[in-house]
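Incident log entry.

Two folding requests arrived from the same account within the same minute. Monitoring flagged them as a possible duplicate submission, but the sequences differ. Recording both here for audit purposes.

Request one:
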Amino acid sequence: MFFAIEEFIALGQTQSFSKAAKRLGVSASHISRRVNALEEKLGVRLVHRTTRVVRLTDAGHDYFQKCADISDEMEEANASLISDAAELEGRIKVSAAGDYAERFVSPALARFGLLHPKLRIEMDFNPRNINLIDDGFDFAVRYGHLSDSSLVARKLTERKLVAAASPAYLKQHGEPTHPSELSKHRCIISMNDTWRFEEGGKEFSVRVPAVWQSNSATSLVTSAVTGAGICYLPETTLQQAIENQSLQPILKPFCFSAIPTWLVYPSKRFLPLRVRAAMDYLITSTAS
């Protein structure tokens, strides 16, 4: 790696000297000195610094993108060089939550484990927002918009959202023709009471009255099937209930067509081959 590029990439990814230092296992002053020296060597200011905020300059942003691309290519080249000869062993610890992780990610990792018998794979199904580094996780499965810019993300898949209710509920309460009408209905929610829809290429949000809330996908589907209200969940979660006509899709023109699912992890630096191979396997298996 060229002089101070590793420190600069970590700073660009985290937008924080302390977070970059934690990622690389060094002091914040070390990161600051190395980036300062890099700026002096290049003769260009790469970072705007204040007491609380670190922001890349326009030149710094362009340089960061180029450096990150080169770093990614080097990591992939190194991994491909040794992957055929290496025997995967050790522990892989994964944080996940939700129906998709249970139905698709967990079985895929189990199949990956069969291919590499010396691996020990641990999955923690917990909806809380854990700290990957502090809690010792190698990677996590996350959904939708990612708010933590300090994490590296790889897209696993995209899923369509579906609004649905039981035929009995729709017969009693009527079928809404626009998401704005949901304020007059009973709704079943998982994480929050604000649902996002799209219309004419634009996103909009609707706050819905919740009569049932749970972090269990099975519970949400079951309550919808019993007629408790309207749910808004990934198509893969509702597929069986829709196929056996226990639930009926509604508001089809407005439902989100592509909600991303991500694999997120703290850093590419010293990423164990077993972890990289597991993530590669998950992405390949979900794409097939």
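Request two (distinct sequence, not a duplicate):
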Amino acid sequence: MSSKETYSKLIKDEAKRLGFLSCGFSKAEFLEEEAPRLESWLNQNMHGEMSYMTNHFDKRLDPTKLVEGSKSVISLLLNYYPQDEQIEDTYKISKYAYGHDYHHVIKSKLKILQEFISEEIGEVNGRAFVDSAPVLDKAWAAKSGLGWIGKHSNLLTQQVGSFYFIAELIVDLDLEYDTPVTDHCGTCTACIDACPTQAIVEPYKVDGSKCISYFTIELKNEIPNEFQGKFDEWMFGCDVCQDVCPWNKFSKPHREPLFNPNADLLSMTKKDWEEITEDVFKKIFQKSAVKRTKFSGLQRNVKFLSS
């Protein structure tokens, strides 16, 4: 067994021990196929008011510009599919935001993995990324053989669908690289047909500026009236394209206690949400990603849905 194979196995075993669904490796290099796609998407203003998407274009496509001397991208998946969901006929929150903010949960796991690599292999320089830097995480996960990018632009696997977070370690260590898997969307158009705002403008292309997640989380101004009645009761994020995907029949509940929701969240009715106070908001979402939209943002979303 070569050192590359030995190191690769060590890292994958430790990732599994830490609770990650899967772990894959790809060579840190310029993403040639993604470059024209990203440029076209930005030129068509599909990022809406997410101006940060236009920053660091070169770094977004080339990890060696993010981490000097980097040789490998380690991609990891962490399941967040919940055991229990909100009651029927209420305003909905995307399942990824039920529990503690995933940024913090995953960052601490990545820190342990980084320390493990240094202890077992020697001095390895690198950086951890959890959806907070210019990294095309889905592209890297697909290159690393962890799944394929579906028509809804989310990463998909045959075994567990798409309800998981993606994270990376970009390191200056040579590893045994994995190979991409084949696309298994076939002729299915379930996600395209079900999108309430027709945000999936063509297979594999999502207009971010029409996505319910964009309106309820990213947009700071008022939600355009033309989308009134089209939000399918989503007040933070949206899971429609994932919920209808046949591959998500294979989703299994996560085993991460920190992703378990506040008990009150699951039982709240529309009336509860319409009358929510800032104190209740802080209590329920104390460590949640929902804090990103702030109390005023959630109130705006609920008002838009109830008017």
